[in-house]
Amino acid sequence: MVVTTAIATVAATGYSIYQGEQQKKQQKKQLNLQRQANEDARKQAKAEADRADMEYNKANRQTADVGAITDESKLAGKGGAAGTMLTGNQGIATEDLNLGKNTLLGG
């Protein structure tokens, strides 16, 4: 009678361990499936956001202000197209750059 009870107990314990292992495998499988679903959802959300950005940019195209480019009074510190704040619209005379020689570097 004791042997039968011991065998039944061992068998029940073995079966419980087997069931526990099967549950762990099933949980791992479910967890991996959930991770993959999350990754797929993340990729799809990014693709949708990118598509929405492109559609928004397409609908709200901006153009260059060509008038501001050609308006000389706005260029180069109001000194004209060639002007700078340091030299004005005339620039610097080339002879001022010569260092006593016939080249700009004095050589």
Short structural summary:
The protein contains three helices and no strands. It has helices spanning about 1-60, 65-70, 95.
Strands, helices and their partners?
Blueprint: H1 2-59, H2 66-70, H3 94-97
| Element order: H for helix, E for strand | HHH
Average pLDDT taken over every residue: 78
In total, how many domains does the architecture comprise?
2
- What distance separates the N and C termini? 116 Å
* Global structural class: mainly alpha
Instruction: Write down the overall geometry.
Output: elongated
Helix content range of the residues, please? 55-70%
What can be said about the biggest beta sheet?
A: none
Determine the number of helices (DSSP H or I, runs of at least 4 residues): 3
Describe the overall structure.
The protein is mainly α. The protein folds into two domains: 2-62; 71-107, no CATH class. The protein contains three helices and no strands. The chain has helices at residues 2-59, 66-70, 94-97.
Brief descriptors of the model:
single chain, 107 residues, mainly alpha, 2 domains, 3 helices
